[in-house]
Amino acid sequence: MGRILNAKFDSTCKKCGLTWSEGEKIYYQKDPKALCKELKCFIGQGGFVETKPEVVQKRTIEERMAETTKAIQFAIEKYEVVALKFDGKLEPKDGIVFIESIVKTLVGSR
Ligand SMILES: [Zn+2]
Question: CB within 5 A of ion ligand 1: which residues?
Protein backbone atom coordinates (compact mmCIF):
# COMPACT_ATOMS: atom_id res chain seq x y z
CA MET A 1 0.00 0.00 0.00
CA GLY A 2 1.37 3.33 -1.04
CA ARG A 3 0.97 6.66 0.61
CA ILE A 4 1.17 10.35 -0.01
CA LEU A 5 4.19 12.06 1.41
CA ASN A 6 6.22 15.21 1.02
CA ALA A 7 9.17 14.79 -1.30
CA LYS A 8 12.45 14.91 0.54
CA PHE A 9 14.32 16.19 -2.50
CA ASP A 10 13.77 17.35 -6.06
CA SER A 11 13.21 14.42 -8.34
CA THR A 12 11.84 13.20 -11.64
CA CYS A 13 9.43 10.40 -12.41
CA LYS A 14 11.29 7.66 -14.25
CA LYS A 15 8.16 6.73 -16.12
CA CYS A 16 6.48 9.94 -17.23
CA GLY A 17 9.27 12.44 -16.71
CA LEU A 18 7.27 14.68 -14.43
CA THR A 19 9.42 16.62 -12.01
CA TRP A 20 8.72 17.71 -8.48
CA SER A 21 10.50 19.74 -5.87
CA GLU A 22 11.35 19.13 -2.25
CA GLY A 23 8.25 19.43 -0.08
CA GLU A 24 5.74 18.67 -2.81
CA LYS A 25 3.18 15.96 -2.26
CA ILE A 26 4.07 12.76 -4.07
CA TYR A 27 2.71 9.24 -4.18
CA TYR A 28 5.11 6.63 -2.95
CA GLN A 29 4.94 2.89 -2.62
CA LYS A 30 7.73 0.59 -1.59
CA ASP A 31 6.63 -2.75 -3.00
CA PRO A 32 6.00 -2.92 -5.88
CA LYS A 33 7.92 0.28 -6.25
CA ALA A 34 5.89 3.17 -7.54
CA LEU A 35 6.69 6.82 -7.32
CA CYS A 36 5.19 9.86 -9.00
CA LYS A 37 3.57 13.18 -8.33
CA GLU A 38 0.75 12.21 -10.67
CA LEU A 39 -1.76 9.76 -9.19
CA LYS A 40 -2.58 8.27 -12.60
CA CYS A 41 1.06 7.54 -13.33
CA PHE A 42 1.58 6.16 -9.82
CA ILE A 43 -1.32 3.76 -10.30
CA GLY A 44 0.08 2.89 -13.73
CA GLN A 45 3.25 1.74 -11.96
CA GLY A 46 1.21 -0.62 -9.82
CA GLY A 47 0.77 1.85 -7.03
CA PHE A 48 -2.19 1.82 -4.73
CA VAL A 49 -3.18 4.48 -2.32
CA GLU A 50 -6.25 4.86 -0.22
CA THR A 51 -7.70 8.17 -1.25
CA LYS A 52 -9.70 10.11 1.24
CA PRO A 53 -13.39 10.33 0.49
CA GLU A 54 -14.48 13.60 -1.05
CA VAL A 55 -15.49 16.14 1.53
CA VAL A 56 -19.25 16.32 1.51
CA GLN A 57 -20.29 19.66 0.19
CA LYS A 58 -22.14 21.57 2.85
CA ARG A 59 -25.57 22.62 1.81
CA THR A 60 -26.35 26.28 1.63
CA ILE A 61 -28.91 27.82 3.95
CA GLU A 62 -31.21 28.30 0.94
CA GLU A 63 -31.07 24.58 0.18
CA ARG A 64 -31.76 23.74 3.80
CA MET A 65 -34.72 26.13 3.93
CA ALA A 66 -36.16 24.71 0.72
CA GLU A 67 -35.80 21.20 2.12
CA THR A 68 -37.38 22.18 5.41
CA THR A 69 -40.27 23.92 3.67
CA LYS A 70 -40.92 20.78 1.62
CA ALA A 71 -40.76 18.66 4.76
CA ILE A 72 -43.24 20.92 6.55
CA GLN A 73 -45.63 20.78 3.59
CA PHE A 74 -45.34 17.01 3.57
CA ALA A 75 -45.91 16.85 7.34
CA ILE A 76 -49.01 19.05 7.12
CA GLU A 77 -50.46 16.83 4.40
CA LYS A 78 -49.86 13.78 6.58
CA TYR A 79 -51.27 15.54 9.60
CA GLU A 80 -54.45 16.38 7.73
CA VAL A 81 -54.91 12.69 6.94
CA VAL A 82 -54.31 11.71 10.57
CA ALA A 83 -56.54 14.49 11.90
CA LEU A 84 -59.38 13.27 9.69
CA LYS A 85 -59.02 9.79 11.14
CA PHE A 86 -59.23 11.21 14.66
CA ASP A 87 -62.26 13.19 13.56
CA GLY A 88 -61.18 16.51 15.01
CA LYS A 89 -60.25 15.09 18.39
CA LEU A 90 -56.65 16.21 18.00
CA GLU A 91 -55.51 19.28 19.87
CA PRO A 92 -53.62 21.94 17.90
CA LYS A 93 -50.54 21.21 20.02
CA ASP A 94 -50.71 17.59 18.90
CA GLY A 95 -50.47 18.88 15.36
CA ILE A 96 -47.36 20.86 16.19
CA VAL A 97 -45.71 17.82 17.79
CA PHE A 98 -46.74 15.63 14.88
CA ILE A 99 -45.39 18.04 12.27
CA GLU A 100 -42.23 18.73 14.23
CA SER A 101 -41.40 15.05 14.58
CA ILE A 102 -41.89 14.40 10.86
CA VAL A 103 -39.78 17.41 9.89
CA LYS A 104 -37.04 16.34 12.28
CA THR A 105 -37.07 12.85 10.82
CA LEU A 106 -36.84 14.20 7.30
CA VAL A 107 -34.25 16.94 7.63
CA GLY A 108 -33.05 17.06 11.21
CA SER A 109 -30.46 14.34 11.35
CA ARG A 110 -28.20 15.57 8.57
ZN1 LIG B 1 5.05 9.65 -13.43
Answer: 13, 15-16, 18, 36, 41
